[in-house]
Amino acid sequence: MAYSESASSAPAKPSSQWPRWLRRNTMELVACGVIGIGLFMLLQPFALFLYTWSFLTMLGGTVMFMVVSKFPE
To answer: Residues 6 or more apart from 23 whose CB is under 8 A from it?
Structure first.
């Protein structure tokens, strides 16, 4: 009987030590948002200042996405 009890219990999954807001899903959404903001800055016809910084914004979002894709779930 003791064998069946131990066989039915699954091993506990270790909980991540990362804060919930710093996990991959959340941070990937933030990185995609930064890329989207950079795209908007690139395509808007109103402010030269936004157009000037659009490439660096998209580049930062892309690098952020590549880094946070390595974070734990």
So the answer is: 16, 71, 72, 73
